[in-house]
Design brief:
This protein is mainly α and 105 residues long. The chain is elongated and about 55 Å long. It starts with a helix and ends in a 6-residue tail after the last helix. Keywords: Membrane, Transmembrane, Transmembrane helix. This is DUF2178 domain-containing protein.
Length: 105
């Protein structure tokens, strides 16, 4: 009984994070094909918008490493979860920021 649970514990993060990655990639591909990707007026705002997903991945990775240092969760498993969840949060931030109007104050 222990072997199937151990295999499930190893494979489950890969399956869930793979689903998150596929969701984000397919949504971005769909937005690209429709021509509705986020556009900003200034170059710095556009650069920030384009880097939100990679920033989410990096922040998720860093949080996962710190979490694995102070908890019994294995490093490899926490890195998989952290980067996947960071990618999802980066995509949500991309969607929110792409709809936000620029203010010149």
């Amino acid at each position: 009984m222990g072997l199937p649970l151990e295999i499930l514990r190893i494979v489950l993060p890969v399956i869930i994070v793979g689903g998150i990655v596929l969701f984000v990639m397919l949504r971005m591909k769909h937005k690209y094909e429709k021509g509705t990707l986020g556009k900003k007026k200034t170059k710095s705002a556009q650069d920030f918008l384009d880097s939100l997903i990679p920033l989410g991945i990096l922040i998720g990775f860093a949080v996962a490493v710190l979490l694995s240092l102070f908890s019994p969760i294995s490093l490899l498993s926490s890195i998989a979860w952290g980067t996947g969840i960071g990618m999802l949060f980066g995509y949500v931030a991309y969607e929110i920021y792409s709809k936000k109007e620029e203010s010149y104050s």
